[in-house]
Amino acid sequence: MAQLRQVLSDAGFQQVRTWIQSGNAVLRSDLSAKEVELRVHQLIKEHIGPDLAIVVRTGHELRQMLDNNPFLGDEYPIARVFFVSFQESPAEEKVQALLAQDFGQEKLRIDGMSAYMFIPQAFSDSKLSNNFLERKLGVAATTRNFNTITKMIAWAEEEQDVATPHKISS
């Protein structure tokens, strides 16, 4: 993550912060979210190596995602809710086909560029996963837990008065 911070800073992004080894960064940029996605993808591939899909959200978009969480209340402990950001909107027919499946106690909701998964057991034992959603929907995605999302929102809101920050997930 130190290398990612350095590469992004050297490329002119401002106030770059990374969150542990989570693949998340918050930064300031005058570029659009799509431009940041493309630029960061290029920088990582060129300077670090992997050819990763990059998903960018503004602090406001992350806050909206958290506010739209359909899994609330005692029956859905927040530690078992996972937040998914898609790089682009999945095709509606693929969404409907996926939502028609029965995942047992696991729950899935998809709302445009976001999805929400309630996974009551260990995430590693779940049928639902980031890779599963990418494969079924044909779009790049990134999945984060509540703690990571709230940390990214807090950092983004610290910088909100200065410029629009972006979250990067790989």
From TrEMBL:
Gene3D superfamilies named among the record's database cross-references: SP0830-like domains
InterPro entries: DUF1697
Protein name listed in UniProt: DUF1697 domain-containing protein
Species assigned in the record: Pontibacter amylolyticus
